[in-house]
Amino acid sequence: MIERRLVPTDPTEFTSPSVRIGETTVHGLSDGLFRLDGGAMFGVVPKVLWDRVSPADERNRILLGLHPVLIQARGHRILVETGVGSRHDAAFADRFGVQQPPTLVESLAAVGVRPDDVDFVVNTHLHWDHAGGNVMARDGRLTPTFPKATYVVQAADWEEAIHPHERNHGSYRPEDYLPVAQAGLLRLVDGSLELVDGVHLERVGGHTRGTQVVRVTSGGSTLAYLGDLVPTSRHVDYAWLMGYDLYPAETLEQKKRVLPRAAAEGWIVAFPHDPEHHFGRIRLEKARGHERPVFEPLEG
Question: Which of the residues 54, 165, 211, 213 could staple to 62 if both were Cys, CB 3.0 to 4.6 A apart?
């Protein structure tokens, strides 16, 4: 069912894992590794707890993955997320500990896909670590990396991205998404819809007002790309919320809705930032009279 390999410290060793969901194939991709502040990634969870599972470096940063996925469904190639991209300088790479290769384009090439082959790009939201590869520099100007694709974004997230405030402006880079709109490739959606047969987008909010998850169904099986609703397997626990979440109560509410369903229906789940696991499953276990979600990696 799955070809699986942990993401190594050396990103050049990355091998794309893949899973079959009925007649649909989902490839786990990589745009490299990066680091963010551990306190911001785990919010009110004390460092003495999160440092056990995500050890911090000397700058209090934890290692994270940049994990888009490619969905091949009924003749469509749907790319979910584009990572941080390659339009950054040495200062940015040092600040965020960016390690490339591989880049997203290199990961796509490894599964036989060129940028021109992509039909849809779905951004779960427009933060720079999810939309940074939307655009690339060509002939001295910024143009969409995937020139034949329709880029699909929730309208609520677009509004936050083009009208940022003091709390969120550092998370957005307009050059990641304005060239897409200028090229006429942007499609704004409002709420839930079926993008193509068996590929569903669902607005969940929480991290941003327009954060969406992607759910793939085929042959009685389901895979859900959880985006920053659950950025890593360490964030499966209900209380482990990011300080980056703009609407944390909404994140908690949606986790309590989505994760029990994932457990009950046996979904495969995918994370954008886990440094070890692209895919896994959720189970519920009893603890102090309550059910809590627990992550289980997929076995080869």
Answer: 54
69 contacts 26 by C-beta, under 8 angstroms: yes
Residues in CB range of 164: below 8 A, 6 or more apart:
171, 172
Task: Give the phi and the psi of residue 142 in degrees, each rounded to 5.
Answer: -90, 125
Say what the pLDDT of residue 117 is.
97
Residue with tokens 């859900």, as numbered in its chain: 224
DSSP helix, strand, coil percent of the chain (3-state; round to 5): 25, 30, 45
Q: Which of 54, 242, 210, 62 has the alpha carbon at shortest distance from 131?
A: 210
Q: Kindly report whether the global pTM for this prediction surpasses the value 0.90.
A: yes
Please classify residue 54 by burial: count the beta carbons closer than 10 Å to its beta carbon, then call 0-12 exposed, 13-18 middle and 19+ buried.
buried
Q: In whole angstroms, what is the distance from residue 281 CA to residue 260 CA?
A: 11
**Gyration radius (Cα) of the chain, Å:** 18
Q: What sign results for the dihedral spanned by CA atoms 251, 256, 260, 261?
A: negative
Q: Please determine, looking at this structure, whether the domain spanning 2-297 carries the CATH number 3.40.50.300.
A: no
Q: Which two tokens stand for residue 244?
A: 């980056």
Tokens 């990355």 found at: 14
Amino acid letter for position 261: R
DSSP state of 74: T
Neighbouring CB atoms inside 10 A of 250's CB total 17
DSSP E strands in 66-198: the ranges are 69-73, 76-80, 120-122, 135-138, 141-144, 150-154, 186-189, 193-196
Q: What is the pLDDT of residues 7-24, one digit of tens each?
A: 444 545 557 799 999 999
Higher pLDDT pick, 254 / 167: 254
Q: Kindly state the helix (H) or strand (E) to which residue 251 belongs, with its residue range.
A: helix 248-265
Give the contacts of 264 (CB within 8 A, at least 6 positions apart): none
Cα–Cα dist 96/80, whole Å: 22
Mean pLDDT, all residues of the chain = 93
> Which stretch of DSSP H or E encloses residue 178?
helix 178-182
Question: How many Å apart are CA 186 and CA 149, to the nearest integer?
Answer: 9
